[in-house]
Each structure stands twice: as structure tokens, then as C-alpha cells.
Amino acid sequence: MKRWRRIILVLALGIIAYWWWDHWREHRFDKVIVTAAQRYHLEPALVKAVIWQESRFNPDARGGAGELGLMQIRETAAMEWAESEHIAGFEHAACLNPATNTLAGTWYLKKVLKRYAQTDNPIPYALADYNAGRGNVLKWKVGAASTNSAAFLEGMQFPGTRAYIQAIMERYEYYKPFFNKS
Questions:
Q1: What is the DSSP letter of 29?
Q2: Per-residue model confidence (pLDDT) at position 27
Q3: Sign of torsion, CA 126 131 136 139?
Q4: N or C end: fewer C-beta atoms under 10 angstroms in the chain?
Q5: Domain ranges (residues) in the chain
């Protein structure tokens, strides 16, 4: 009987430790996210959902096309951000810093959202642009899909990008209550 109690105790402690670690991992950058979201006038829940999808909160993440950090920022986007913010001597490697990465990524996300402001919901278009590039979005944004996000998603030719958008949209809804507390 004592052996089973020990096993149950060890399992319970393991579950508690895992829950604590997972909670810490998912919330350790919340202040950075809120700061960037406020600066660029975006919802923190959307920024956090992109980070979740892009890196699962790993600030050292590196992508196959040279993307860096939490929001997987490419060098071109990072340099555009640095230029817009008048940061002299900026290097892409600075995007491994969570605060810098989140600022640059949030700025870029806001930029692509503005491109699709005339649509019924700019978020799917912006996320497709963030993931697959503007050229692909322009190919998919024809007919009803030019302003109707449901038609846009339906006509999208990359199932991976559609899944990417859907995953972020679900996670965005999941995170909203965490940031909308009064």
C-alpha cells in the first residue's frame, strides 16, 4: 500500500510540476506582448496567438528561411521595422531578444493588417500574407474573395496556410479572455 501511495504522490507532483512549467512558458512573455500590442494598436490576444503558432513561445526559434525568435521575423521585415523606428545599426540577430522580436513582429502584423482594411475581416488575409507572402494572397484574393474572408479561405490553394490561419484564429479566441479581464 505504501508503494502505491508513493507512486501516486510522485505522479501528482509530476503533473503539478508540468502544469506549472507549461503555465510559466505560455505566460512569461505576456508583459512584452501587451507592451508591443499597445504600441502598435493591436489586440494582445492576436499577437500571442501568432507567437503560439510561430514558435510555441521559444525565443530562440529559428526557421528554415532565416526567421528568428518568437514571431519568426525575417530579416527584411526586421530591417523595415528598424528603419521605421529610426534604429541605427540594427542587426537581424537582435530579433532573438523577445522584446525586440515582439515589437518588430507586431509592427509587421499591423502593417499587413492595414493592407486588407477594406475586407470584411482583415485578419485571415494578414495571416495568409504573414505565412505565405503577399504574392500568394493577391492570387487568392479574386472575385468574392477580394473582400469576403470566408470566400478567401475557401479559395486558398495552400492547405497548410489555411490550417495556419485557422489555428491562430482559434488560439486568438482562446486568449481573448486572458487579456480582457477588467
A1: T
A2: 84
A3: negative
A4: C
A5: 30-179
The pLDDT score that the predictor gives to residue 69 is 97
Cα gap 15→124, rounded to integer Å: 36
Fold designation for 30-179: Lysozyme (1.10.530)
Q: DSSP string of 80-92? A: HHHHHTT-TT--G
Over 80: is that where the pLDDT of 162 sits?
Answer: yes
The one catalytic residue among 43, 54, 80, 91: 54
- Over 60: is that where the pLDDT of 5 sits? yes
Computed over every residue of the chain, the mean pLDDT equals 93
Query: Is 173 designated active site?
Result: no
Q: How far apart are CA 69 and CA 58, in angstroms?
A: 7
103: nearest Cα among 34, 176, 27: 34
Query: Are 120 and 152 in contact, with CB atoms under 8 Å apart?
Result: no
Burial class (CB in 10 A: 0-12, 13-18, 19+), 158: middle
Helix, strand or coil for residue 62? strand
C-alpha cell read off for 51: 507567437
